[in-house]
Amino acid sequence: MATVNGHTEDRYQGNTPAAAPTPKQPFPTAKSVDTQSVLKRLQSELMALMMSGDSGISAFPEEENIFCWKGTITGSKDTVFEGTEYKLSLSFPNDYPFKPPKVKFETACFHPNVDVYGNICLDILQDKWSSAYDVRTILLSIQSLLGGKRISSHCYAEVTVILKCTLKFSRNKTNRLTRAYIFL
């Protein structure tokens, strides 16, 4: 029984109790739960990357959006890419790590596995993706791809032909060709 405006009311109407007022709290949707787990995963990967001490790779969220990162890799020693710093963009989907991030070169890169738009042809970013991979693994794989000696494994045949011809020249001339392409 409750008293409202001096009158006594029976909260029970018949045998069924009246619904008690409840505070409005939205139930978490599956998408917001997934987003939270992705946020935690990306924060964890950022910390692991910062603590790893790997030379020649780095990445950080862009401004306040943890789903968009800017990364850098430095060309490996004893390659035509040595000493060149490349800027990358990494865009993580809402279902990361079950789907790979989209990774692109922002700095022009003359390589058989990189097209003129910066798209990277790398199996772990496509059909060989595994949720066990992380940002560190991706950056190290791209760095390794640049330093790889196998130019027969390629996605962009035009660059492969040029590189095969260029390999006949000295490393210095190849390095100049790469650096000249970067500044186009």
From TrEMBL:
Domain UBC core: 37-184
Organism superkingdom: Eukaryota
Record InterPro entries: Ub_conjugating_enzyme (IPR050113), UBC (IPR000608), UBQ-conjugating_AS (IPR023313), UBQ-conjugating_enzyme/RWD (IPR016135)
Residue ranges of the region described as Disordered: 1-34
EC number: 2.3.2.23
Keywords: ATP-binding, Nucleotide-binding, Transferase, Ubl conjugation pathway
UniProt xrefs under SUPFAM superfamilies: UBC-like
SMART domains listed in its UniProt record: UBCc
Catalytic residue list: 121 (glycyl thioester intermediate)
GO MF terms held by the record: ATP binding; ubiquitin conjugating enzyme activity
Family affiliation: Belongs to the ubiquitin-conjugating enzyme family.
Protein name per its UniProtKB record: E2 ubiquitin-conjugating enzyme
Source taxonomy: Eukaryota, Viridiplantae, Streptophyta, Embryophyta, Tracheophyta
